[in-house]
Specification:
The complex is a heterodimer of chains A (about 170) and B (about 425). In chain A, about 45% of the residues lie in helices and about 15% in strands. With about 170 residues, chain A is of the alpha+beta class. The chains are: A alpha+beta (about 170), B mainly alpha (about 425).
């Protein structure tokens, strides 16, 4: 992300290599996990036909207004890893004369994404007293598993958390 | 018109070349474990190539992208090292060795420790009578300490390198596929299981009759199969293996796809590690105080030379495992391994005849046999013992010769047929 940030004054903090590297390192650490959630969230929108890498990046740029940037070459290793881990499946199709790999969330991938978004939301909520923002979670529609923070629809008939197996029926009531 | 066409073709060629150069660089820097998977590499490079052309076509607003636009997009892709480096980012770092490789690392260390202790113990037995009890034990522990320290350093370096390359235990399966199942299991890792003290309740549990005490963690563990079969409600209050709960809905059986993969067919990795550890031990052991009972015997050097050759072969095998399916490099290393193997032959022959006008080893062996026949309750005559020794040596030499020949045949087969194919099952 910082690669697109200019240094306007030589005495600015990121004018020195040390602090520029520090800031870059922090951003890259933070974005690593967030990128996974965001990428999966976009793929979730295409449950039938899937989405290919370039289309995904375009959508990511548009949706996050170019704030969340994944270096183009590093998106594919991330997708491949998630495919190997069983989070995604893929299908090869040809479009405009070029082979393209369309990625779709697997059943397990959907569950993991629910957990990731739940965990991320609870994390932001927990951090909010320390920060200058407020978080309001949609707790009228979802509950967050008290054990693993998995996001569970309140109108689901599930009696157990799909991720950690916690008995949630009583908690839901 | 034709000039314009030529210009267009030249520009097209240059664009293709730029893209190809970038992809070649990515391929070159990919981790070793991935270099064996040609289909995967093709997929990776195809995706990157498609991405470059998509982005460049968009920059050209749907027209033919220029050379500059292609170069701009390539720059935006990130450096080939960084892209390739992402594929090495596997496993959770634990010190410098990944958590996934750590159990295998520990197992190999334990085996090395057991082997080294045994070697030293045997050495100690031979020293009984020549030294005081105190120095016998001092030498025994010193031998264990020094040899284990060296083995620890060697094994650790190997595992740090493997971790940096992003190896996971499952990557070793392609090296171990031809081994007996008992040895193969050594390289397999079981799924990690976590245990938690729980006070479990199930749907059938109904009202809670037992309130958890402050010392119990309330983590209900569910096994939906138990629920569906309406097994008698029960309170489980013990250590339970926590696994991901099974979903009640039955998922479709995975489709079995048989793929044919090309395989080296050799367990180079384990051969490499074993050879390096074994070789190092043999090089060091004869010069430890523990082996002082051998005096100035040339056989000490014979053992060290044997270890040196094993060490060299081990290093070559380890490199072969890392190189994977790079044909020329693999063939080069195979050819290189022929030389240390050939060196075994004169070394073994030197036990029963002069080799290169040197007769020290044979003389020493004859002295040893003589001592055995005269001082120990040896069941064979002097001549018969020499005969048995000769048979053993010729047998070993013959095995070595066959091994060299088969290595050369394997090089030729690789040239003619490529890597051998094995059948693997893939579940989708």
């Amino acid at each position: 992300m910082l690669k697109k940030v200019k240094t306007f004054h030589p005495e600015a903090l990121i004018g020195t290599d040390h602090f520029r590297n520090y800031v870059e390192g922090f951003e890259s650490e933070l974005l690593r996990g967030i990128s996974t959630v965001v990428v999966l969230q976009i793929i979730k929108r295409y449950p039938r036909d899937g989405i290919y890498g370039y289309q995904l990046l375009k959508e990511l740029e548009e949706e996050t207004k170019n704030v969340l940037i994944i270096e183009e070459g590093t998106l594919y290793p991330l997708l491949r890893k998630m495919e190997k881990d069983g989070v995604l499946s893929s299908e090869k199709k040809e479009l405009s004369g070029r082979p393209r790999k369309y990625y779709i969330l697997t059943e397990e991938g959907i569950k993991l994404l629910n957990h990731m978004t739940g965990f991320f939301a609870k994390l932001l909520e927990a951090m909010s007293p320390l920060m200058d923002y407020q978080i309001k979670l949609p707790e009228d529609r979802f509950m967050y598993c008290p054990n693993c923070a998995n996001k569970i629809k309140l109108d689901d008939f599930a009696k157990f958390c799909e991720v950690c197996g916690l008995y949630i029926e009583e908690i839901k009531a | 018109m034709s000039i314009e066409n030529n210009n267009y073709d030249n520009s097209s060629d240059r664009r293709q070349e730029s893209v190809k150069a970038f992809l070649d660089e990515v391929e070159r820097k990919l981790p070793f474990w991935l270099k064996d998977e040609k289909d995967d590499i093709k997929d990776i490079l195809d995706e990157l190539e498609t991405h470059i052309w998509d982005r460049a076509t968009e920059l050209a607003e749907g027209g033919e992208p220029s050379q500059e636009q292609i170069e701009f997009v390539i720059e935006q892709m990130g450096s080939p090292s960084k892209i390739a480096g992402e594929y090495k980012r596997r496993g959770k770092p634990k010190f410098y060795i990944t958590e996934e490789l750590f159990p295998l690392y520990q197992r190999i260390l334990v085996i090395a420790a057991v082997a080294l202790t045994s070697f030293n113990f045997i050495g100690m037995l031979f020293s009984i009578g020549n030294k005081s009890v105190a120095s016998l034990f001092a030498d025994f522990f010193q031998g264990i300490f020094i040899s284990f320290a060296i083995a620890l350093i060697l094994i650790t370096i190997q595992f740090v390198l493997l971790s940096r390359e992003g190896y996971l235990p499952e990557d070793f399966s392609r090296f171990t596929s031809r081994l007996p199942i008992t040895i193969r299991r050594f390289f397999e890792t079981r799924p990690k299981e976590t245990t938690t003290e729980v006070n479990a309740k199930s749907e059938a549990y109904g009202t809670i009759s037992h309130e958890p005490t402050s010392t119990e963690t309330e983590v209900p563990i569910t096994t939906p199969i138990v629920i569906e079969k309406s097994v008698k409600p029960q309170i489980v209050k013990e250590t339970i293996i926590v696994k991901e709960p099974r979903v009640a809905k039955e998922s479709p059986r995975p489709e079995r796809v048989v793929k044919y993969r090309r395989d080296l067919g050799r367990n180079y990795l384990s051969e490499g590690i074993t050879g390096m550890v074994f070789g190092t031990v043999l090089v060091i052991l004869p010069f430890l105080p523990l082996f002082d009972f051998m005096g100035t015997s040339p056989l000490r050097y014979w053992i060290a030379i044997l270890g040196g050759i094993s060490l060299v072969i081990g290093v070559i095998r380890f490199l072969q495992a890392l190189v994977g399916r790079l044909l020329r490099l693999q063939q080069g290393l195979m050819f290189l391994s022929v030389f240390p193997k050939a060196a075994y032959i004169p070394l073994w022959l030197s036990l029963i005849r002069p080799v290169f006008e040197y007769d020290g080893f044979r003389q020493e062996v004859l002295k040893l046999i003589n001592w055995l026949v005269n001082n120990v309750d040896w069941w064979m005559t002097y001549e018969n013992t020499i005969l048995v020794l000769q048979i053993i040596v010729y047998f070993i030499v013959a095995i070595n010769a066959i091994s060299i020949l088969s290595e050369l045949i394997r090089i030729a087969k690789l040239e003619a047929e490529g890597f051998p194919i094995r059948e693997v099952e893939v579940y989708r």
